[in-house]
Amino acid sequence: MTKIFDKPEEFAATGLRAFNHIFQDVVRPVAGGALRAISGRKGKVTLLVGGGSGHYPTFCGYVGEGFADAVVMGDVFASPSTKSVLDIARIAHCGGGIVMGFGNYAGDNLNFGIAAERLRAEGIDTRIVTTTDDVASAPSDAHRKRRGVAGDIVVFKIMGAAADDGIDIDGVEKIGWLANDQTRSFGVAFDGCTLPGESDKLFHVAEGRMALGLGIHGEPGIAEMDFAKPSEIARLMFERVVGEAPVSSSRVAVVLNGFGSTKLEELFVLWAELEPLFSAKGLTIVAPLVGEYATSLDMAGCSLTVTWLDETLERYWRAPVNSPALRRPLIETEWVPMNAQHVERVEPTYAVEPSAVGRAAGACVGKALEALASALAEAEERLGKIDAAAGDGDHGQGMARGSSAAAEAAKKAVAAGAGPETVLAAAADAWAERAGGTSGALWGEGLRAFSSELDDAATPTAHALRQGVRRMYERITQIGKAKPGDKTIVDALAPFVETFESALGDGQPLVKAWQRAAEAAEAAAQATKDLMPGLGRAKTHGKASLGHPDAGAISMALSAEVIGSFLSTKISK
Amino acid sequence: MTKIFDKPEEFAATGLRAFNHIFQDVVRPVAGGALRAISGRKGKVTLLVGGGSGHYPTFCGYVGEGFADAVVMGDVFASPSTKSVLDIARIAHCGGGIVMGFGNYAGDNLNFGIAAERLRAEGIDTRIVTTTDDVASAPSDAHRKRRGVAGDIVVFKIMGAAADDGIDIDGVEKIGWLANDQTRSFGVAFDGCTLPGESDKLFHVAEGRMALGLGIHGEPGIAEMDFAKPSEIARLMFERVVGEAPVSSSRVAVVLNGFGSTKLEELFVLWAELEPLFSAKGLTIVAPLVGEYATSLDMAGCSLTVTWLDETLERYWRAPVNSPALRRPLIETEWVPMNAQHVERVEPTYAVEPSAVGRAAGACVGKALEALASALAEAEERLGKIDAAAGDGDHGQGMARGSSAAAEAAKKAVAAGAGPETVLAAAADAWAERAGGTSGALWGEGLRAFSSELDDAATPTAHALRQGVRRMYERITQIGKAKPGDKTIVDALAPFVETFESALGDGQPLVKAWQRAAEAAEAAAQATKDLMPGLGRAKTHGKASLGHPDAGAISMALSAEVIGSFLSTKISK
Q1: Which among A397, A550, B371, B502 has the fewest CB atoms less than 10 Å away?
Q2: Which residue of B has its CA nearest to A146?
Q3: Measured at the alpha carbon of residue A359, what is the angle toward residues A355 and A364, in degrees to the nearest 5?
Q4: What is the reported pTM?
Q5: B30, B78, B544 ranked by CB distance to A106: nearest
């Protein structure tokens, strides 16, 4: 809800005063509105726009080079007075006559209309172009009787560019009406807005519902329905707007507008569904806008605006503009449809190992990672439950996702003929990338450190594996900064490494040594569990989540068969 | 709340894909992030920024000329993976080394940190600058341990401009740390955000309260208090931030940032309180930003960021930039404090009437308007109550405000020595301006039409008054499009005009004729009241509120003494 205000009746005027301070690189203050910081060229047509407050950046954000010369602002949701329009028109007039642009609402028609009459009586040629883009507000055969909504930005931008280009008043008026007649908008509301000083919303949309065609001052919509998926919302808006295509042009300016509380990342998600509909219909999008352009205080919802362009309209839509709402240089880009965009990426490459020994050893690493992934997939639910007690319950998912990605990457590397170091390094990177979170990064780094002890051209020796697990342990504790006893994977890794080393030192064979190490890790994980459930460190920003001892124990508990396969690669040589 | 999403886990990736489509005039897609549409000059330092999603335009909006070369985006509120950082860094590297910019959070430190290590191992000089501007997150003597919030935009913008300016990697890193060390932010939260797919907010701020220093992922704040007026919120944020001034520079970049649901017009209202505090402290604001720069989905609240500038930082802060979040040419403007800004306005001028007769007659019009204003002031409450039954209850206020402004304007015109036409025209304009709404515009236009029948050099004749009220009636019905019987002021004006005309036609004296006309208006207003309470037309957009018959009757019911004074002006000649 609208919270920041002192005297509600001064909300609009106070905001306007601040606006004129904030944007003084492009605007300067005039009583009741704003002017361009530097007036337009003498003799040019003056574009004067305006309407009620509460819709920022409509209308005051539209003043600047390549856009409006002046704006007249009314109170929240109220037309500016005739006198304001008149006063500002007289100050702003550059000599070439005035075109007034505003949305088609009774109060604005009245006040701008009277002011235009009086300006004409004073000898100033004054024309009016009203925006009437809201398809929900009247039938298609009464287009010019409709309300003006987010179409404002397209129609006024095009008129402003034409006026700055030196087009005369007949021309600017004609271009303005053409732009309006080729513009259609349709909005869906998810919730109403709160006027400053009011404790309740001006209007409501029931939870879980959405109102189609509801106006930006709460004017009644045309229907209500259950809240839908982005694909359905996109199709619904697209069909309403594009279904009424006023001309056959295949080039369109498109505005996806948020009403206030629907955020830009949500609009992006909607755009991902919306844009393909244009491509499929053979429509080329030109310089689209996705953001907040015609808001209604903190109203939730969004609207789609489409303007069918001819060559002139497109030139002026692409023209440079420098206003608070829209700043951009001349746009020369041709938009490529989303599906046709080239996405740069680094494709993984694997050093191919020339020796058969090395390739066979690589395959053994791949098999070990596969075993590890299936053990963690089996443990996913259990790890999730343990994590849920202290964290957000996603540790099982993360470990399963990471190890599965690692096994997948290892498989690819093995297929490409890579040796053990390369296979394990590829797996390490994939684990970190897909597991996400801090524990994913730790596992990735740990396995990568492990891999550095392997030799692509050779079967891993017991010594290399001993060095590998030690390096892994060191890297994880170095980055994660956890010590044994912190109830992290380190609690399982530490006894594993120590047992493995001492067993090998005692002359035990590799398989046996690994199994004993795995048992030690499992015992340590059990012991930790008795002390406290779940993760030892809170999963909040600023404190790393370093994974659960159980996950460490499960990961290291590879079967004798798997570990044994490292030895058997010697035979297969 | 966050409503538009399909699969919550794909929210960030889908949004990023759309982002890369929408802004293809400045960016191009890379797996996991975005690159500049046109790569930076070969050999320049590469600025790579990144962090979690959910904070748009932080971070992906920061890619473009004069800003970052590339961005790496994580999932909602999660660090990007080491692999993403690495892959994008390798693609984006222009040859002059890489400076990584990100907020100081554990996950980002880990993933960017590991990637930086590996890049260095590959021979790419890689530096890290973390933003640590949030004063609420650690004591002032541990500035570099703090969290990074909206300071990102200032620190990264300055680094990006320096890198594009050809500064080497040591220089860019140094400027980045300097910018960070001279940047402080403090935020207040009014309510939490909703993660896509969650039915409840991630955190809550109790209704009517505000949380000081609450982080943009819900990290605990430092205090909570009752929601305050804009002046108090402004002072509170200002003191926290400026109270920690790290250097004595008097020139500051300032960002007033909305978290998501706190709208720009509210931020403007806050700015009106905030800006004078800077002036009072002798601080000169340079190219301020007020808008949404570091959001937290739909979180409510705002933050203040101040960067103390030296000459170098200011040059790069003012440098041109063309990114989705910030597009502006080189800023050369020197900001003038709000109170010192010249506000253009049209000062009313009155034609001074040379004849004493005219001036005396002007004074009589002034007296009539004074009587009218006091009658409407007296009736304010009654009219408000009538209006409340069908409209928003402000009709009494509007009439009182309008007529009082009219009397005031008339008084000034009389003091300036204006004749009756000028006095009434001045009053008419003032009424329309101050009353607001449709009925204000109608009264203004009506009185203005009336004034056109008066002669500045002469005492109004009975004929002129008869023509005047008729013209007033005609103008009001012409503009308002109401007919008798529509239960508007026309219902009172119509019998007034007819009775006045016929009484004068019958040879009755002016005072008598006016009184009879006023009685007829009053009777008509009473009759209308029996038919229905309140205003005849709904006070909604699209249907004009044309005022209540009572208001018409009261307005026209001037006393015999007032009306008589028009006659007596003959004597005072």
Answers
A1: B502
A2: B542
A3: 145
A4: 0.91
A5: B544
